[in-house]
Design brief:
Radius of gyration: 24 Å
Low-confidence stretches: none
Largest sheet: 4 strands, antiparallel
Strand content: 15-25%
Distance between the termini: 74 Å
Helix content: 40-55%
Number of strands: 7
Length: 228
Amino acid sequence: MQEDKGKEFLPLVSKPWFFMTWVTRFFAALLLLAMFLVILVLPAIICGQLTWFIIVGIMYYPVLGFLLYRFFLYQKKIRKRIVKRIVVDDKGVHYERADGTMDEVLYSNLKEYSFSDQYDVGVSPRNKQYMLKVNDGGRIADVDFDGMDAGYYYYFTNLRTLRRKYIQGIVYFRPDLRINPFVFDVYYINPVDFTFDWKTYWISLLKVGGILIFLTLGSAFLLYKFVS
């Protein structure tokens, strides 16, 4: 039975969008350049006199040089961890990184919690996003489909599909694990056929948009009353 499911469960590979990748890189480079120029001329803007500029510059620019050096070292280190390719198959999820290493979160390594009132698969908030949380061989692990670890080498167009595929794999190959129903809600996944629930997604967006419009109009009305 497990073998039959494995044959039906075809691998899904991340799909890069090269145009959006280069657009993102271009604007990111422009933003970094603008920030660097602002930081570079900041003492000249603050200090009105040449004497003060020289005094501040003697302390400011060596510190700036050291911080930039540390920043470039960090970027060099983190770029080796950038994910170039993601594959979800009947074994689990596989992350191919820029340095040639491979990270995996396999279905066979997932463990149950010992507490009966605790779900085995859930989500955890991280930087205003929800990360899929599993017990990977006794270690709590976040299954990253949002580039929170080190980012992606390309702009991938099917990250939501990859995440749905991985959750579907847990249901297929590890039916002993208990999945928190909130997982399906937060990622807008239909638990029956694992398709994206567009209806619920758009309803949520409309609700958020309605609240924002209401707050904006309310603030504008109160400002108008205050001014008049």
